[in-house]
Amino acid sequence: MKTAQEIAEDVSDEEGDVFIDSEDVFAEVPDDGDHLMDEDDEAEDGVGDLPPEDSDVKDNSLQHFTTHSGSVFAISCHPTEPLAVSGGEDDLGYIWDITDGEVIVKLTGHVDSVCSASFSSDGQMVATGGMDGKVRIWRRVGTVDFRNWEFLTELQGPDEVIWLRWHPRGTILLAGSNDSMVWLWQLPSGNTMQVFAGHSGPVQCGEFTPDGKRIVTASEDGTLMYWDPRSPTPLFKLSPQDARFDLENITSLAINASSTLAVVGGTSGSVRVVSLSKGEVVGALGGHAEGDSVEAVQFVDLAGTGSSVVVTGGTDGKACVWDLTTMRLRATLTHRDAVTSLLTHPAPKSHLIVSASADNTLRTWDARTGALVKEHTGHRGPILSASLGLQGSVVVSGGDDSACLVFTTEVDESE
């Protein structure tokens, strides 16, 4: 696990500036919450039947996890181990084994829906965020058995957590809140490192830039802000007052691998390309039906093509593949209902995209051609979240049917 100083050394920029400096304390506020571990809960077997079966639904999943008693809002796979963490409407999270559905840890302590849950980049910690405003942290115990976890701390601050993001290189956690604030904490201490204010509505999405040096956030109020984590004042702000940037409510965001471009989508169905170095709009993308919200954005690495490619998914059931070099549409991928999530595979299969939908299916596509590679079925309700695991060999999904399903992404050449 990296210390704040090690992270600082990793992300120092060309001018000697750093993202985190252990001596550069922003507004460090010690957490005064209860740090005691939760009592051990008896492990429950998550393997079970799905809700009443629709005879028309073919279930081609490898594994079921049906311990949640309400909709599953969040799912995240461990970076290396066969584990997933899920969070749901039942105010609970679970760490579970994706190979057999066994519960590893029951994550308790929330008093409202768990809407975000994810592993840290090194896989040593798990964070859950809830509509109750709580952010709770668990950590792995020991270095041999990935099944041993303990409760670490509860972080204070947000009103209602909308999303959580771990820093790409260490144990720094970012959260967007319903009260228009964005929070930054250092773990394992739980100290508040920065509080970002400036939005005037719920902060619907946010990301660290892949180089770890900056933060981008966007709000229901239609504003986008670009932050240096050391400062409570944004480096730049785009708002609906700029006619080129009017997206109505912003709902989705992605940043390219070189940390130079952000692509944002809104409830108007519009998409904007923003230069992070210039702080201005450099492109506008159509493709989605007017008034149909853009719910997901993902960059795709098409190695060797020389093209910068992004995929946008909307409530119109379309996933549009765009070439940002030409600002032209390469392909349109379709579902029968809203696209709720987009995932891109790691190399060497980085040309593959997985789309999740409210039509109860996930689909794997080839971004180079727009061809449907595989359909993943078995859910009996809208799919609300999805995550790739085991180096992209499986996709794990959580649905409105209270179930989590595990699917292989490997293609059977005989199909």
From TrEMBL:
WD repeat intervals = 65-106, 107-138, 164-195, 196-237, 332-375
Top-rank taxon: Eukaryota
Q: Which SMART domains match?
A: WD40
Please list the residue ranges that the record marks as compositionally biased, kind Acidic residues: 7-54
Which PROSITE patterns does its entry note?
Answer: WD_REPEATS_1, WD_REPEATS_2, WD_REPEATS_REGION
Q: Does the keyword Plastid apply?
A: no
Keywords assigned by UniProt, alphabetized = Repeat, WD repeat
Identify the stretch(es) annotated as Disordered: 1-57
Name of protein: Ribosome biogenesis protein Sqt1
